[in-house]
Automatic annotation (TrEMBL):
Naturally occurring in which organism (per UniProt): Actinopolyspora saharensis
CDD domains per the UniProt record, alphabetical: HMPP_kinase (cd01169)
Catalysed reaction, written as an equation: 4-amino-5-hydroxymethyl-2-methylpyrimidine + ATP = 4-amino-2-methyl-5-(phosphooxymethyl)pyrimidine + ADP + H(+); 4-amino-2-methyl-5-(phosphooxymethyl)pyrimidine + ATP = 4-amino-2-methyl-5-(diphosphooxymethyl)pyrimidine + ADP
This protein's name: Hydroxymethylpyrimidine kinase /phosphomethylpyrimidine kinase
Single GO term (MF): phosphomethylpyrimidine kinase activity
One of the GO biological process terms: thiamine diphosphate biosynthetic process
InterPro entries found in the cross-reference section: HMP/HMP-P_kinase_dom, PM/HMP-P_kinase-1, Ribokinase-like
Domain Pyridoxamine kinase/Phosphomethylpyrimidine kinase: 12-259
Keyword Kinase part of the UniProt annotation: yes
GO CC terms: cytosol
Summary of the function given for this chain in its UniProt record: Catalyzes the phosphorylation of hydroxymethylpyrimidine phosphate (HMP-P) to HMP-PP, and of HMP to HMP-P.
Top-rank taxon: Bacteria
Amino acid sequence: MIRNVLTIAGTDPSGGAGVQADLKTFSAHGTYGMSVITALVAQTTTGVSAVHEVPAGFVTEQLRTLLDDVRVDAVKIGMLSDAAIIGAVAAELERYRLPNVVLDPVMVAKSGDRLLAEEAVLALRDELLPRADLITPNLPEAADLLGAEEITDVADMPAQAARLRRLGVARVLLKGGHLGGSSSVDVLDADGAVEFLREERVDTKNDHGTGCTLSAATAALRARRPDWATAVREAKEYLSGALRAAEQLEVGQGHGPVHHFHDRWD
Ligand SMILES: Nc1ncnc2c1ncn2[C@@H]1O[C@H](COP(=O)(O)OP(=O)(O)O)[C@@H](O)[C@H]1O
Ligand SMILES: Cc1ncc(COP(=O)(O)O)c(N)n1
C-alpha cells in the first residue's frame, strides 16, 4: 500500500525549501504527498523578500477539508509563521489524532529572515512540542526553545537533546549543521537510546532546504519503516545524496537548493 504523507508548511517559489522541497522528498520516497499551506513566501536562493500569511481559520479549513476525506500516515510540520497558525494546527492534530508527526520548528531562514514571529516561540513550545512524535531543531532553534545559550560543541549535543525532551517531547533529532567542520553531526534521542548520526560534510554552497528535506524524508520513511531510528538514519543518508546531487544544479545566485533525484533518471 502506498503511504499518504502530509506537509503543513510555507512555500518557496524557487522550489528549494518549504512545501516544494517536502513534496519532492515525499515522491522520491515512493509516498503520496499532500500539502496544507501556512504562508506564501516570496523567496529564492538569495533570501526572503516578503511573507504573506494564510489566515489561521483558513489553515483550519484546509486541514479539515483534507482530513475528513483522506487517510494520513505521517505528517511533517514546517514553517508556521505565527501563534494563531500554531494554535490552529495544534487543535487539528488533536482532533484528528494524526500519527507519526515530525515537527521541524522552523524559525529563521538561512538568509537570516524570520519565518516565525519571535513572540510565537512560546506557543510552539507549549502547544505543539507535546503533540509531536519527533522534533528536529537546529542549534539556534534548540537554544530559543530552551531559553538557553546556543551550544558550540558536538560534545554538548546529547545534554541539549535531553533538555529538549524534558520539555515534554517524545523524541529529538538535534541537528548540528551549524557547527561546520568536516563532518555533519546530528544527535537522535529517541526511545531510550542516544545516537550520533555522522555524515561527511558535502563541500557545497547549495544547502537551501536541508532542514526541510531531512524532516520530510523522516516523515515519509517513518510511514514505511517500523521505527523512528531507522527512518531518521535513512533520511540523513538521503539528505547527503541530495546535497551531492545539488552540485549538478544551476539554480539561482545564492545558496542553491538540494536536488531530489531518482536513480532511474541518471
Ligand atoms: N554541507 C553539508 N553536508 C552534509 N550535511 C549537511 C550539510 N549542511 C547541513 N547538513 C545537514 O543538514 C541537516 C540540516 O542542517 P542544519 O543546518 O543543522 O539545520 P537547518 O537547515 O534547519 O538550519 C543536518 O542533518 C545537517 O547535519
Ligand atoms: C517556507 C520555508 N520553510 C523553511 C525554510 C528553511 O529552510 P532550510 O531547510 O534551508 O532551513 C525556508 N527557507 N522556507
